[in-house]
Amino acid sequence: MKRMGLAALVAGAAAMASPASAADTIKIGSSLAITGPASFLGDPEAKTLELYVKKINEAGGVNGKQLELVVYDDGANANKARTFATRLVEDDGIVAMIGGSSTGATMAMIPVFEDAGIPFISLAGAVVIVDPVKPFVFKTPHTDKMACEKIFEDMKAKGIAKVGMISGTGGFGKSMHGQCLGVAGNYGIEIVADETYGPKDSDMTPQLTNIKSAPGLQAVVNPGFGQGPAIVTRNFKQLGFDVPLYQSHGVASKSFIELAGDAAEGVRLPASALLVAEKLPDSDPQKAVVTGYKAAYEEATGQPVSTFGGHAYDGLMMLVEAMQRAGSEDPQAIRDELEKTSGFMGTAGVVNMSPSDHLGLDLTAFRMLEIRDGDWVLAD
């Protein structure tokens, strides 16, 4: 378990300000996969929250009070996540929550925050988090359903109709697999092969061999995150496929390219503009936000930016704006203002929430990217 309080975050400012009493702080919580197999999600999320809570406090805090961040490391374990969620509510007394690196951890925590009436901004991908809408639950990343739609939109534009799927069996992979099957027909896509792999599988050659033999195969899509998609990508190249490979936004970090190596060349995937921040035209209204966050994160951490840290940035900034509009740290008031979020420009795109939409992103927020020469570029 990892827990970080305000003192650790604002040590640099401590000499300039007297210690804040409990009445002068606003407690927000987080439970993230900081270590373990999903640390590529949780580590940049935690670093982002630490960085920007410090910046906000040094700038005067929120409504005249300092933010106090309480973070636990659940390692993407659903049982641990639920335990920490309960602790954040009952022992730590938080007024809002940003976290849930994985879909499984998020779904385990939702009942805790719904029962407590605490606004919860999830950083996980599956559409089931916000569909159906739950009163106190919001999320920042594009959904798995949107990823399917963006991928199939790109395929349709290229005349691709016969597609093979190889999906992870974890929470995100399983959910995206179902979403892709559900929307494929809307784009004239026929799934001609459908294979899966487990979280501990180290070789997907048998499944990919079956896919390669499917009649008329024109492309392959891999719903999943973690190390699995990198193994799929390497095996895909080893088998000499001559069709495009599409991955999900669950691999939108530099670590995927490093794990997949040369095999990542040409892989296409939907992701946020953050991965191509400097390559956006100056006229792009999102450029200032993504280049600003990228520069701040990379300077503070010495690590390349990922979309996952960007999800935490969006969640924190929307929460702060909601608290400012509410003029209160009352959880119900914060929830009500979060639901009114409109025209918020984040790293994921423009967010317009409503009582029937607790994500607030549309398909235009996704960019189709391709990996070329070991880096991300806007796809042709």
Automatic annotation (TrEMBL):
Any one Gene Ontology BP term: amino acid transport
Domain of life the protein comes from: Bacteria
Keywords assigned: Amino-acid transport, Signal, Transport
Signal peptide, first to last residue: 1-22
Ranges where the Leucine-binding protein domain occurs: 25-360
InterPro entries for the chain: BCAA_transport (IPR051010), Leu-bd (IPR028081), Leu_Ile_Val-bd (IPR000709), Peripla_BP_I (IPR028082)
Family: Belongs to the leucine-binding protein family.
Protein known as: ABC transporter substrate-binding protein
